[in-house]
Structures are given as C-alpha cells and as structure tokens.
TrEMBL record:
It is an enzyme of class 2 (transferase). InterPro entries: AftD_N, Galactose-bd-like_sf. One of its GO terms (molecular function) is glycosyltransferase activity. Signal peptide: none annotated. SUPFAM superfamilies: Galactose-binding domain-like. It comes from Flexivirga oryzae. Residues 1074-1148, 1235-1255 are annotated as: Disordered. Residues 1092-1103 have a biased composition (Basic and acidic residues). Residues 30-656 form the Alpha-(1->3)-arabinofuranosyltransferase N-terminal GT-C domain. The chain crosses the membrane at residues 21-37, 125-143, 149-174, 186-214, 226-247, 294-320, 327-345, 378-395, 404-421, 1041-1064, 1155-1177, 1183-1205. Residues 1078-1089, 1120-1148 have a biased composition (Gly residues). This is Arabinofuranan 3-O-arabinosyltransferase. Keywords: Glycosyltransferase, Membrane, Transferase, Transmembrane, Transmembrane helix.
C-alpha cells in the first residue's frame, strides 16, 4: 500500500484535469495526423465517385441494377455507402469542401472513433488507468491494419473503428441486476452500432460482431441475454443484410475470377498475423516494382516495422496471459480463434496441414470469407487490451526493473507506425487534380448521349485506373459522366459473356490494323462512342494507345469527333457512324444457333454469316445441330488479375483440369471441355513440363506461344520456354503407343529466343538416361536405345553462373514418329447446310490448323480472309494460298485460293480469297455417312497471313418487320414500344441477361425471357401487333424495401435508445458506459487507479459481473481502493488463491490446456509445430507469459533478417515455429487458465475480491 496510490484513488481535481488534458492532446494528434498525409492530394481511397459526385452515386445505389457501368450489372454493395461514409462525403461536397479535404475529414473520424473506442473500453473494463488506456487506444488506432487500408480502402477500417464500441455497448448485459430501462438501453445501443457498421463490405462488418458475441457467450450472466443481443443486432443490420441477400441471389459469380484463397493466405503465417501484416495486397509490387499499397508494404517488409509490430504484439500477448476470469476467457478465445482463422489456410513446409481443405472451403462455400485478414480486429483488440494491462502493471509496480518499461513500450507503439515517420502512409500516386480534359470529355459524351443515346467505351482497357498523373480507385470518366461508360473492370461484375466480349474488343482494337467488324460489333453492344486515352501509366501494362489509334483510324465505322488536351494526356473522342442505339432492338423469332462463345460475334460479322437483323443463341452441345460451328471459346486457363493480352494460357487438352480450379477458370459459358475446342496431341497421349512461360500464372510470363506444344509444331519461330527461372527444367512425354526409339533430336532455345542455352541435356528413355554436354550447340542428337518406349523425359540443366535462367526447346523429333498437336473442334458440322468458322488464335503459327468433324456431303470450300504485309498479290488461282484437307485415313487434298477483288498493297489490309480450281470441285464430291475427323489447314502465300476462314452454307434466319418506336425509363425500369410484326419476335436490351428481369406486354402477359447473343437480356413477344413492353428489374423492389425497413428499424432503435437513456438518467443510472454503481468497472474501491471512473464492486457483481478479474489485478491497490491486502482478499490461504473452487483450473483444466497447446501447434505448423506446442505445454505457468512474448519477438527478428515472404526461407520457417510457441501458450491459457499461478488451497476464498497474478 502506497500513498501514491491513495492520491490516484482520491482523484483530485488537478489529477482529473491532467488526465483530461492527456486525452485531449492525443485526440489532437489523431485529428491532425490525417491532414499531414499528402496534403492537397487526393488518395485512391475506396470510391472516386465519393469525391466527385457523391449524391449522384448514392442515388444510383438505391437501384439493384446498374446500367451506368459496364454493359449492365448488379450494384455490388453500393448501398453500403448510404451510411455513414456516403453522406459525409455528400455533405462536404455540398459545402464546397475539396475532395482531398473530405477524405481527411473521413480519416479523422475513423482514427478518433478507433482511439476513443479502445480507450474507453479499456477504462470501462477496469484493465488500466487513464494513461495506459490512452496508450492502448493509440496502439489500436495506429494498428498495422488501420495504416494499411486507411489511404486505399478506408471503408474496410470502419468496422474496426466501431469494434470496441460494440463491446462497450454490451458491458451492461453482463450485470446480474439490470433494470428494464438499462436492458433496453444496452440492447438498443448494440443495434444502433450494428446499423452504423454499414454494408459496403459485409464480411468485414459481420466479423467484428464476433467480439461482442464471444464477450457475452463466455460470461455466465451475459450468455443468458445472448439471444436478445443477436436479435437486436440483426434488426440493426437489416438495412444492409436484406440487400445483401438480393445481391447473393442475383449477382454474377465474380468471386471465382478474382483473388483465390492460395493468394489471400500466402502471407498469413502466424507471426504476420500476430503483428497485423496479414493483408496480401500489401505484399504486391506492380510491374514497375512499386508497392501497390505503399503504407502496407512498409509494414510488411521494413525491418524496423517488422520488429516493432512484433514487440507490440508480444507485449499484448504477455498482458493477455496475466488476465483472469471472464476477461481472460473472452480475450484469449478471440485471439486464438482469430489467429487460427487467418493462419489455417497458410501452407508451406511449416504451414498448416489443413491448408488445402481450408483453401478449398474458402474458394467454395466460404468464398465471402476468403480475405481472412478481415478478422484482424478480432485479434487486435484483445492484444491492445493486453498491452494496456502490461503498461498499467509496469507503471504502477514501483519496481526498479520496470522503471523504463512504459517508455520502451510506448516507443515500440510509436515505431510500429513506421509509415507515418517515413512519410509513406499515403499512396505514391495520389493526384492533385483530375486533368480538365476528362471533365470536358464527360460533358461531351453526356451531351451526345442526350441526343443519340448509347454508351461510351473507354480504350485501351485497363485492369486498374492508374494514370501518369495519379491513381484513382475507379475510372474518372465513369464518375464524371452521367451517361453510361463501359470499361473492363478488374472484377467481372457483369454477366461473364459481356466481359468476354470486352476482352476481345481490347484485343482487336490493339492490333493496329483494320478491323472491319469492330464498329458494327460495338454498335450491337449499344456503344456509340469511343474515348481513346493516352495517359495510362506503363505499370498497368495496357495495350499501346498508338496501336488502338491506328486501328480506329483504319477501321470502317469510326469518325474522330474531337480531341481534348495535349501531349501525353490527350483524349480523343470517336463516334461510331451508322450506330443508332435506342437502348433496345427487335429481332425475328428464330435465332442463328452458334457453337462457341459470345465473342464469336466479331468473326461472324467479318465473315458475313450474321447480319445486324439476326440474333444468335449459343448451343455448344456436341450432339446439337448448330447453324454456325466456331473454334471460339477454347479450353484454356484464365488469370483475371492481369491484362487480357497476358491472361490466357495456350489451348489445353480436355484432360487438363487447371481451368476447373478457382482462380484459373475461364469466364462462362466456358465450363465444359467436352463442348469446347481443345488440344489433341499427335503421337503423344500426354505431355508435361516443369513450367511454362505461356502460363498466365507463371513467375516469368513471356508469350502464349511459349507453351509445350511449341516444341512440336515444326516452327523455328516458337519454342517451349520455362516460366519460373529454375536452374533445371524438364519435359516428359508419354507416347500414344509403344515405339522403337533410336535417337532423339533436340533444337534448344538460346539467345535467339531470349533464352539461356543449357549446359547439359539428359534424355531418359525406357529407364536409361543419356547425358550430353551442350557446349554452345543449339541442335543436338542423343542416341538412345529403346524397343517399346512409352515415355521420354528431357531434362535441361543451366550452368552455375546463369542468372534467372530461361530454358527451353525449339523442336524435338523422334526418327520415324510424327509428333505435334492440333486444336480439335468437337461439334459435327454438315457443310451442305451449316457453316464452319475458323479464326486465328494468338498461339497459331503462319497457318490455321484445326481438326473438325465433318458430316454429310458438303464441300470443303469457302472463303478465307487474309492479312497483307503491303506486297502486291496476284489474283491467279493458288497465288493467295491453299487449304489442305487431311482425312482420318491419311489421305490429303490441297485446295488453292484465289484473291477476290483488286490486288491490295496496303499493309495490314484484310482481303478476301476463295477456293478455286479442280481441287475444289473434287472436294465438293466427297461425302460420308457419319461425322469424320478431318484436319483442315489454311495456309497463305508469302506476305499473307490467314485471319479467318468460313466454310459451308451461311445460315438463313428471317428478319422482322417490327421496329422499336421508343424507349423510355432508366436503370431497372424501361418501357419499350414496338411496331407490328411477327408473332414470337424477340425484343432485346443492350444490357446483361439476368434472372431478375421481368417483362409484361400491354395486355399484362408475362413475357418469356431469352438470352440474346449469349449475354443480352431479351423477351419473346406474344402477339404480332404493335405493343408496349414494360421491363422491370424486380430485385430493386426487395432491395429498396430492405433499405427502407432496415432504416426504419435503425431509427426505431435509435429513438428507443434515447428514450431508455433518458429514463436511466432520471432514475440516476445515467452513465451509459458504466456497469452500474454496484457493478461497474474496477474503480475507486474495486481496483483500477484513476479518477472517479468507476464504482465499488458489490459481492453480486464480483461473482457474476462483466469484469471478474483484470490484469494484475491492478497491482498495489491502495488502502482506500480495495487493495489486495489483508482485508481485501490477498493471495493468502483465504484470499482466493486460485484453487478448484477459487476460479483457477484443476488438473483437468491444466491437462486440457496442455493438450490444446500441442493440438494448436500441429494445426498451424504441421508435425514440426508439435515441438512449439510441447514447449508451451511444458513451460511452468509463472514463466509462460515470458516465454510467449520472447518467442514472438524472436520470430519477428527472424522474419526481419532472414526472410518474410518466401515460405521456404529460414526467416519464414523459424518465424512460424517461434510464433507458434506464442499461439500455443495462448491456447493453453484459453483452455486451461494457464495464466494463473499454481493452484493453492482448495479452501473457499475469504472475500470475493478479484484475484491477482504474479508479477
């Protein structure tokens, strides 16, 4: 007992004034801090619409359907901005506050709410006095997650900011004696705070509710009121939960095409999770090797930050292991559960043995939880509480060894905020202002849209809107313009078919040559204008704007309308001539059926097999009878995270299951390899390689033509190249049938292919290996012996001094054996009545070769479109090239081609050639009774390249006499008036097909929904007369109803809270945060030093109140503060030494805790993790907190100096094992109250005062 503590307990006016000043000073820091981050510059935070046109954006968010972006899509949680973020930005905008300043206002609110929430929770739990609580609040507000997401996606930090307040709200629910008004007040406040979480990111909002849930669940009194709390929380969150259900029911499945669990869990090792550096985006560098998130990267990679954040987390763990009773149960359960949730998906040599099934769940049924880092607040808040407990303990102990501890801990908290001191919190590419030409273009396209309708396409496409003048989270033109703007977003939120089309548009536009079908195809999409931008940053790897400009100039249908700006920031607006989009179209009842993808539109337009008066329906069934069979939509892997030019793998075999995996799936309808064009090996049954530079997921992607098939295509211009910079590469082929092999000839990739010539080559045939030294040769022949060879393996070894080697094979041949591959089109086609359409793929060589299945007696004759190199072409038969037809029986026929029209000499022009000569006539006489596999090769003469080939008879679909007379309405409500025509005609929007659309005619009949062109929404008309069609996107109604009902309930909860608070105030129970005069936080007589922040604990509250015990339990409680002395229940024989009846576990609890330590160690680190678990289990209780803290600090030191990202590095392995000791210690404490001292007498405690742990 000390007089110093007596002074604290008395809390005189000057002491209260000092504490108040300390709190205000720290508040001032958090108010000022956001304004020091890139002042005057707008950060790429969350939504650009909020800084440009917040009220317009919030107005659109009321609709479930969004026709402003893309080609029509569901709003993706845009309603979540209705509160609180959106109104704040809207009000500031209305007051004339600049966008950058509005961001700082929002950030200030975030930091202040976070700080005060944690500080108040610590005080009201009685964990620490005023100054340690302030430090704890600062540590929470400056947590790594907060600094990581604040300048880039701050809305994800809002649930974290509210998390402490959610717990504060339920504190009264743990009191045994609670008046009805107090109960209603607490429940209503919990509901109001749940409503305030917002629904922009429902996962982040939902996860933080685990904190109050577990708080009540682990309390003997609180769990009785748990269902009441759940009910009010649901009522409060209905305004964002009900629209979320609508989104889940009608949204397109975009989660399969963005980040995968293997990516999100790649960095969630146990030490990274503890220190808060668990967001995978923070570890990403762009193509220019610049951090995508600058502040997060510093926290993830900086040596100083790694060690400092580790020290802060270690101190927090040390404090958690000192807590007792309910507070210990709650914090430890939350901390252990959060670490397990985030780290169980982390694989590697010392990763979780459950990582694969966990990742499968996160990629499947638990996909909304895939970004596991959102659970960080569930860990961070307990750690901050533990840190405050330690600060209080060391600052009030009076021991010499603790003299400098508070300053050291405070210094660690400050240093952990490394991005602040380095001036790298904000993004490096924040912008001062959007160039004026963007606003000018927005006004121009809005004016044009009012006159002629239609949407505007932005080219070239870009996955991220990063410009030379700065980075914006969304395309600025979409935010500036009121009319629809079509962009290819990073996440395919629209119907996948429309995304496929936009990807093809980007590829066609970037060819730099004339594309005759491009303008017509865009007009069919409802696009009437194109904006060409020149100011995309090189790091986004977009297609060169120069090529796009050349394509638009050379292609028919485009007219340059205006140019805005100058130099590298010029924007050019092009009109699409002849386009007269009315927002809808009408077609005849019969479609053209197409085997292929929706992107076949441009090839069909170019080949003349589809007119603007016809619509098509996809039918890729092998047993079907499609009018047009195409080779579009081949079986390929797809990486949506990179630009289209690098996103696709080469065409794969049907046995390759990579495109079935989450993250590598191609966009629908590409889901069934049996109905899609796929590669078939010739001579081989299977070919495997160590890696491929044609893999869109490769470390070193080069080109789609660098896949394994290029080693057998006979083209010296292509090669199989490795994509992982490994020093050893191998190719393994399994022959289709046993073959005698005497030698293997290899042409090796070298400098001519920008590759590394290997030092040695090993060829294994029939179990025997021959090794050959290359010695600078590019062609080697390896003699081998094998009579019945089934497998051949070629291994390449790079020299020891090779840096980042790229190995490969240009060609491989076996004497007497034909090796190669061909792309097989599975649908049968009768050329006498159907059309076969073949198009050039990026991996095709000089010729187009396909294996097709011909039926009937149709001729292999047709038209080929050739690209010129500027040379003059003769019009004689055979001068343009030829078509080679190879039947299954081995017979071959060559059909010559003749140029149609004049001899073009314009480079890049697309010219037409047709079959000619007697070979064509002979081909027409070929007939079969059943489909036969036939290989067709379209070859061109020197100087020409085949682009497209059409065979057979073009489909004939009747047109309609109907016409669209008017279209009115917007977003999810349209009224379309059509003239008279045929019964069953189809009316179509230029927007995505969705089950939510409903249409009725003038008579009230509900119309049949049809998918037009593989992506557009259409409806089949009933009668033949003129009609008025009313279309509604029906999910808008339940969404708005949910928003309205939820808002009313939230308002009702707020009014209920205010009324109950008023009643409590009048009855003398007016302290909203207090647990009651008789059951409040540990204060004047219950424990925590400080001013009159708390009340004394009654016996009732001590036995079942919210705070059963605290950190130390506030050591050295004074004479008047209920110290743990002779009369206050010291740790004597009668003072509550934790025996079996005194609250601490007995042998069963201790055994359970030790078992939990070992099990948790195994769960997060596999078999090697058992050792850290055993260490934690075997450590004496009095040393457990010290071992846990030291292990975590040591793990972060290992990360800092020996590797943090590479899971195979010494730092990552050592760090994982050491941090597992800490986690296992927490698990032991959670299950067995390991933080308590050894059990004493089983005698009942003399008094119900809080227990105290050892120092």
């Amino acid at each position: 007992m000390t007089e110093g503590y007596d002074a604290q307990v008395d809390a005189p006016a000057d002491r209260r004034r000092v504490h108040r000043i300390q709190l205000l000073l720290m508040l001032a820091v958090f108010v000022v801090l956001p304004w020091l981050v890139s002042p005057g510059r707008t950060e790429p935070d969350t939504k650009i619409d909020l800084t440009i046109s917040p009220w317009r954006y919030l107005g659109r968010s009321l609709d479930a359907w969004n026709n402003h972006a893309g080609l029509g899509e569901l709003q993706n949680q845009a309603y979540g901005y209705l509160f609180p973020m959106g109104p704040i930005f809207g009000v500031c905008r209305s007051l004339g506050i600049p966008g950058w300043a509005t961001q700082r206002v929002w950030w200030t609110l975030l930091l202040v709410v976070s700080f005060l929430g944690a500080q108040q929770l610590i005080r009201r739990l009685g964990v620490a006095g005023p100054l340690p609580a302030i430090a704890g609040g600062a540590a929470y507000a400056l947590a790594p997650r907060m600094l990581t997401v604040l300048p880039v996606i701050s809305i994800e930090a809002w649930p974290m900011a509210l998390a402490p307040w959610l717990v504060v709200a339920v504190l009264p629910l743990t009191r045994r004696s609670l008046t009805r008004a107090e109960l209603i007040r607490a429940l209503a406040l919990a509901g109001v705070l749940t409503a305030a979480l917002g629904g922009v990111n429902a996962t982040a909002s939902g996860i933080v509710l685990a904190l109050p849930f577990v708080f009540l669940l682990t309390h003997p009194v609180g769990r009785r009121r748990l269902l009441l709390w759940v009910g009010t929380a649901v009522l409060g969150g209905l305004w964002w939960l009900l629209p979320l259900l609508v989104l889940g029911r009608y949204a397109y499945p975009f989660l399969d095409y963005i980040e995968t669990a293997s990516i999100t869990t790649a960095v969630t090792s146990v030490p990274n999770v503890f220190r808060g550096a668990d967001d995978w985006i923070a570890y990403i560098l762009d193509s220019a090797d610049h951090p995508v998130w600058q502040g997060g990267w510093v926290l993830a990679q900086s040596v100083t930050a790694i060690i400092a954040t580790g020290v802060v987390a270690a101190v927090g763990c040390w404090g958690l292991l000192r807590l007792r009773g309910h507070l210990a149960r709650w914090t430890l359960c939350c901390a252990v559960a959060a670490v397990l949730f985030m780290s169980l998906g982390h694989g590697g040599s010392v990763g979780s043995p459950l990582s694969e099934p966990v990742r499968a769940l996160l990629d499947g049924a638990l996909a909304p939880l895939r970004n596991v880092h959102k659970a960080d607040p569930v860990l961070r808040l307990p750690l901050v509480i533990g840190l405050a407990a330690v600060l209080h303990h060391v600052s009030s102990s009076g021991k010499a060894r603790h003299r400098f501890a508070p300053a050291i801990i405070a210094l660690a908290v400050a240093v952990a905020a490394t991005p602040i001191w380095q001036g790298r919190v904000g993004a490096a590419d924040a912008y001062a202002a959007i160039p004026t030409q963007w606003t000018q273009v927005a006004h121009e396209i809005d004016s044009a849209a009012k006159t002629s309708g239609g949407a505007t396409l932005l080219l070239p496409n870009s996955r991220t809107p990063t410009y030379t003048w700065g980075s914006t989270t969304d395309e600025p033109l979409a935010a500036l313009a009121a009319s629809p703007v079509v962009t290819r977003e990073a996440a395919p939120l629209g119907i996948p078919g429309s995304t496929r089309i936009l990807d093809v548009v980007d590829q066609l536009a970037a060819t730099g040559v004339s594309q005759p079908s491009l303008a017509a195809g865009l007009a069919r999409l409802g696009i009437e204008r194109v904006v060409l931008r020149r100011d995309l940053a090189p790091s986004v790897r977009a297609q060169p704007w120069q090529r796009v400009q050349r394509t638009l100039r050379l292609s028919p249908g485009f007219r340059q309308q205006a140019v805005y700006g100058e130099g590298g920031s010029t924007l050019t607006v092009y009109d699409i001539t002849g386009a007269a989009d009315k927002g809808a179209a009408v077609y005849s009842s019969e479609p053209v059926t197409v085997a292929g993808g929706p992107e076949a539109l441009f090839a069909m337009y170019a080949a003349g097999v589809l007119s603007e008066d016809q619509w098509y329906q996809l039918d890729s069934r092998v047993s079907g009878n499609a009018d047009v069979v195409t080779d579009s939509m081949p079986w390929r892997a797809y990486n949506d995270g990179v630009p289209t030019a690098y996103a696709y793998s080469p065409v794969l075999t049907r046995g390759d299951d990579e495109p079935t995996r989450i993250g590598a799936k191609d966009l629908p309808p590409a889901t069934d390899p049996s109905t899609q064009p796929a590669r078939e090996w010739i001579g081989w049954s299977d070919v495997q390689v160590s890696s491929s530079a044609a893999d869109p997921f490769a470390t070193h992607y080069l080109d789609v033509r660098d896949g394994p098939a290029s080693a057998f295509d006979g083209d010296d211009g292509t090669a199989w190249l490795t994509g992982d910079h490994a020093r050893e590469a191998w190719l393994r082929g399994t022959l289709r049938k046993p073959t005698a092999v005497s030698k293997v000839t290899l042409r090796l990739a070298g400098p001519a292919q920008h590759a590394t010539l290997p030092e040695r080559v090993h060829v294994t045939v029939g179990g025997h290996t021959e090794t050959v030294a290359v010695r600078g040769r590019t062609t080697i022949t390896v003699p081998v012996r094998g009579a019945d060879v089934r497998s051949i393996t070629v291994r390449l070894d790079a020299s020891g001094d090779a840096i980042d080697p790229v190995l490969g094979i240009v060609g491989m041949t076996l004497a007497g054996t034909r090796l190669g591959s061909v792309i097989d089109v599975p649908q049968p086609v009768d050329l006498s009545s159907r059309t076969l359409l073949l198009t050039r793929l990026p991996e095709d060589g000089p010729s187009i070769t396909r294996q097709v299945h011909l039926a009937g007696d149709g001729a292999v004759a047709g038209t080929v479109w050739l690209r010129t190199d500027g040379r003059s072409i003769s019009s004689r038969c055979g001068a343009a090239g030829s078509i080679t037809v190879r039947s299954a029986d081995g017979s071959t026929q060559r059909i010559p081609l003749r140029l149609k029209g004049k001899a073009w000499t314009v480079k890049g022009a697309l010219i037409r050639a047709t079959t000619c000569g007697s070979s064509s006539a002979a081909a027409e006489r070929r007939s079969v009774s059943r489909p036969r596999a036939t290989t067709i090769t379209v070859s061109a003469s020197h100087g020409l390249t085949p682009e497209l080939a059409s065979f057979g008879k073009p489909p004939i679909a009747p047109s309609t006499d109907r016409a669209i007379t008017s279209v009115s309405g917007d977003s999810g409500d349209r009224v379309i008036r059509v003239g008279a025509g045929g019964a069953g005609d189809v009316v179509s929007l230029s927007e995505g097909f969705n089950a939510g659309w409903r249409a009725t005619d003038a008579a009230g009949h509900r119309l049949q929904s049809v998918e037009v062109d593989g992506w557009r929404q259409g409806f089949r008309l009933v009668g033949s007369g003129a009609d008025t069609v009313t279309l509604r996107f029906t999910p808008t109604t339940p969404q708005r109803l949910g928003l309205l009902v939820g808002a009313l309930l939230a308002l009702a909860l707020l009014l209920t809270f205010l009324a109950a608070a008023l009643v409590c105030r009048r009855s003398g129970r007016n302290d909203l945060d207090e647990l009651g005069r008789r059951g409040g936080s540990l204060g004047r007589r219950g424990g925590a030093p400080g001013e009159r922040a708390g009340r004394s604990l009654s016996a009732e509250e001590r036995s079942g109140g919210a705070v059963e015990a605290t950190s130390g339990d506030l050591d050295k409680l004074g004479r008047r503060g209920g110290s743990l002395g002779r009369r206050g229940g010291s740790l004597g024989r009668r003072g509550g030494a934790p025996g079996r009846r005194g609250g601490a576990p007995g042998r069963r609890g201790g055994s359970l805790g030790r078992l939990a330590a070992v099990v948790v160690g195994f769960l997060v680190a596999g078999p090697l993790g058992i050792l850290p678990g055993v260490v934690a289990a075997a450590t004496p209780r009095r040393w457990l907190r010290h071992v846990a803290a030291i292990a975590l600090v040591a793990s972060c030191v290992a990360l800092a100096f020996f590797g943090v990202v590479d899971a195979t590095s010494a730092g990552a392995i050592a760090g994982q094992l050491l941090a597992t000791v800490t986690l296992a210690a927490l698990a032991r404490a959670a299950c067995g109250s390991a933080g308590a001292p050894d059990a004493g007498s089983a005698a009942p405690p003399a008094s119900p005062t809080p227990t105290r742990s050892a120092s």
